[in-house]
Amino acid sequence: MKFLRRFFFLIPILLAVMIFPAACSPTAATGTVVLPSTLFPTETCQGILCTPVSQPQSSSACNCEPGNVSATPLPAADKNTLTPSPSAFAALQFTPPSLLSQQGMLAMAVHANGHANLWLWPMGLANPIQITDGSTDDRDPAFRPDGGAIAFASQRGGNWDLYILDLSSGQIESLTTSAEFEGHPSWSPDSRQMVYEQYTNGHFAINIRRVEDKTLMWQGPNGMDSMEPDWSPLARSISFTGRTGTHTDIYVFNLDTQTITDLTNTPDLDERDSAFSPDGKSLAYSVEQNGYTWIYTLSIDNPSKKPTLIGQGAAPEWSPDGKWIQGTAQPDLLHSYLLFSPSVGQSLSPAALWISGRVDRATWTSVALPNPLPAWILPLASTKPAPPSTMPPAGTPLSAQLVNVDVNASDPRLSSAVLQRFQALRGAVKQQAGWDFLGTLDSAAIGIDTPMPPKETLSWLRTGRAFAVSRAAVSKGWLVVVPDPAGPRDYWRLFVRAAEQDGSQGDPLRYLPWDFDARTSGTPSALDNGGRFYADIPTGYFIDFTQLAAEFGFERIPSEPDWRTYYFGINYWEFICADGLDWSTAMDELYPPSAFITPTPTHTLTAWWYQPSKTPTATPTPTTAP
């Protein structure tokens, strides 16, 4: 009898041992590199495949160690486009000495702490230097050809205008002072003129302005939205991103003939962020496919030649010698990789520099900063980081409580562990958008005893560390939702319409929003896809709420795989401040174990292989409270 008891007890274990290896053994698939899971456990971290330091503690967080990155599949072939069929795999190496030993500087705009500021990275130094630190945004840096100054866009004057920062003295001079949005400057080769984008009457146009006397020289072209210009080193042409309808291509404007050429002409793909090579014979640009962004190069002399795939990244920038192409990739909204790939073709091992902050665009010059550093930069380079917070460590049992918040919600409470950050985020949104978007919420806290659908039982709203924005704002036009896929996961980016539409708040949209209501329009494709894109980009000025929320500690979460048929799986409205905790630990901050388990008398049939008796016995069995 004892043998039989032991035998039946071992049956589930034996079955698991027999079945589990067959189910989990890697199988090679077309276009995929399969790594031994015991040696290289990988996860997709919002567009970057990487080796996690440990298992992620929530679905909203990526826990990948910087620089520890494994194989990333290139996009699949498309027979209907000029884009070549990739057959290689990109992998990252972390800060190789050959890259850091190069001469020159990188300048970049880094989003952190609610604003974007300019950073300077002299090649060879271990860390970049923050060179602007105001209460407004500075972005879109562009080195003057001689490396002595940086043009950039800023809201420091009340509207988005262009400025020039002299690197020797630190002096800043304005180039434009109009009410319209102006950004993305690029210098002419002789440094006497500047091309940039301007948003007027709901449309983008590229302008050329003389630097010395600030005279507007040219404006256009007509018939399309034109943005993100780059001036050729050969002086006589300008590349830009052009939008006709809902599609973007890379165009080149010939200054001599006043003609425009569509270089990419791919109706099924959106290209943007063009950049001329130092010799002016090639263009680099980025393409988004299947949740990943890729950099290609195209010959100017022979545009009929198929583009060349370089590697992963967005917003490409050439090295001064033309041997490298730098792009950016974001594993999440708070961190970036600067990716450096050889410009000659696909690279199995591009270099990567890790940045704590979201980098939109970088620029590169061969000119090095003087040694010793200029007097205005010296104190910035020696600035020490702020001391760590003295708050109790997150996850301490019963260290928090639900407290009332002055918001319009069914249960207007949040955890005391996140209250200060929520109020800071609310104030930043109100200041930048001009109205109290977070004053009305669909949900704040949800009580432990409040019934919820089965899929939502373990909702983070129960922890008091999450909130759900008002979905009614979408139908009223005060909020738009833009698809923002990252690898295989579907994410969303929320943009809040600014109260003042004169250019003093927010900036223009560049991407088509998604219409969830279209699923009920009667169109089969919209029903199957869970909605459809808007026919046009809404005009006006918006703030990027998703990015701002992340910088204050509240991260978005991905949609459920079945979101197209299950509306409540879309999740665009929910934001979580997890602090690296899992759900159970976050609940322990608020509730003792007795709040989850209650003794309930019930009849339990004791398993016969543990005891020979088959007699039912009444025993108290703990059950989880709803």
List keywords for this structure.
single chain, 626 residues, 4-stranded antiparallel β-sheet, disordered N terminus
3D structure, described in words:
This protein has 626 residues and is mainly β. It is 11% helix and 37% strand. The chain has a five-stranded mixed β-sheet with strand order 6-29-28-27-26, with no helix packed on it.
Strand content: 35-45%
Q: Quickly give the structural class.
A: mainly beta
Radius of gyration: 27 Å
Outline type: globular
User: Could you give the count of β-strands?
Assistant: 44
* Helix proportion range: 10-25%
Number of helical elements = 8
Poorly predicted runs are 1-92, 601-626
Roughly what is the average pLDDT, rounded to an integer? 81
Main sheet characteristics: 5 strands, mixed
Give the strand line-up of the largest sheet.
6-29-28-27-26
Distance between the termini: 41 Å
Brief write-up:
The chain has eight helices and 44 strands.
What topology emerges from the helices and strands here?
Blueprint: H1 2-24, E1 43-45, E2 48-52, E3 64-69, E4 72-73, E5 89-90, E6 93-94, H2 97-100, E7 105-112, E8 115-122, E9 129-130, E10 138-143, E11 149-154, E12 161-166, E13 172-174, E14 181-187, E15 193-200, E16 203-210, E17 216-220, E18 225-231, E19 237-244, E20 247-254, E21 259-262, E22 271-276, E23 282-289, E24 292-299, E25 308-312, E26 314-318, E27 324-332, E28 335-342, E29 351-355, E30 358-365, H3 378-381, E31 402-404, E32 413-415, H4 419-433, E33 441-443, E34 466-469, H5 472-475, E35 479-483, E36 492-497, E37 507-508, E38 514-515, H6 524-529, E39 532-533, E40 541-544, H7 545-551, E41 555-556, E42 574-576, H8 583-588, E43 597-604, E44 617-624
